[in-house]
Amino acid sequence: MYSEWAQDEIHIDQLEIFAHHGVYPEETRDGQTFYVNGILYLDIHGAGDADALDKTVNYGEVCHFIDGWMRENTCLLLEAVAERLSAALLLRYGILSGVDLEIVKPSAPIGLPFGAVSVKICRRWHKAYLAIGSNLGDRREYMTYGVEALADRREIVVKQVSEFIVTKPYGGVEQEDFLNGALEIETILGPEELLQVLHEIEQGAGRERLVHWGPRTLDLDLLFYDRLCYQSHDLVIPHPDLENREFVLRPLSAIAPYWRHPATGKTVKNLLDELGQNP
């Protein structure tokens, strides 16, 4: 899974597969030949040192897995083949930290002379840190639901969960005290996809966004995603203003004290210590 270290590679070149993918009815009906090129990313030091197959991935088995998946599934677009197959590989082989896949279609119905068309994608496991909180109803039950709902997603692995702490409300809205915590997860989802999952889980707990910084049954915030600095209309990473939020930093420091803010280089412990010095 996720690794910050440079990874070793196993290459699969020109794996030939007859399958039924394409936009036109005759393509899905009659089928055609595809080629798959892949790079599997993992740490093979242990396998090389011990000369042991169980410490690496069996590339013959991987080839048969790809062949079976390509034959058993049907997609209209090469993009869909690449996306879904890469996810299937990452979920099937936990030792992999990432895959590069190229799906080659040499007989695409173009009507002009050409060699081949292909779609190539890179997909990885990513590390993310989340804040979780609640101040309505049975706070611990809502937060337990949130953790379990994350763990139930195939694309997410919950690695660590902090203890839950009682904190005062933040933002000036008069309301009940919060129960807050932090999680470390690994995921193959992109940042925006992960945000959508967090919103779905909040809605599953009856979350209503009526008052900014107001009371809520369940709050799930994306704090860090790898070392990414990112901004869109709906999402900012790292989470803005987290350096001023003790209720975020205290539980996060319990599980990731030396994780560094990608913009400032300060560790979570540094940020928490500085907040204590500057209330």
Folded structure, characterized:
32% of the residues lie in helices and 28% in strands. It has 279 residues and is α+β, with helices and mostly antiparallel strands. Strands 5, 6, 7, 8 and 9 form a five-stranded antiparallel beta sheet that branches. It has a four-stranded antiparallel beta sheet with strand order 1-2-3-4. A hairpin with a 4-residue loop joins strand 10 and strand 11. Helix 3 crosses helix 4 and helix 7 (246-255) runs antiparallel to helix 8. The longest helix has 15 residues, at 78-92. The model is unreliable at 209-213 (pLDDT under 50).
Rg calc: 23 Å
Estimate percent helicity.
25-40%
Average of per-residue pLDDT values: 92
The percentage of residues in β strands lies in: 25-35%
What is the count of helical runs? 8
Q: SSE order, as H and E?
A: EHEHHHEEEHEEEHEEEHH
Short structural description:
This protein has helices at 25-30, 45-50, 59-72, 78-92, 139-151, 191-204, 246-255, 268-277, and strands spanning 8-19, 32-42, 98-105, 117-124, 126-134, 156-161, 165-167, 178-187, 219-225, 230-231, 236-237. The protein has 279 residues and is of the alpha+beta class.
